[in-house]
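Shipment paperwork, digital attachment
Item: protein structure file
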Amino acid sequence: MGPEHPHTLGTRMGLARWRTAAGEPARAATELTELLADEEELLGPNQPALPATRAALADALDAAPPDTT
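Attachment content:
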């Protein structure tokens, strides 16, 4: 399996969700943003996994502390 394999993409999703739950939502948001771009490029815009990735990204962004810069 390589970086473009669906199982690899699924593993990345699981890891990012774990990071959100473990108190690292900013890192998870970064990873999910990258994952979403990869899924759209590799699998196409109609991929059934995209709504779940978008929802996980929204959860991570909601859990992240506000940017004070």
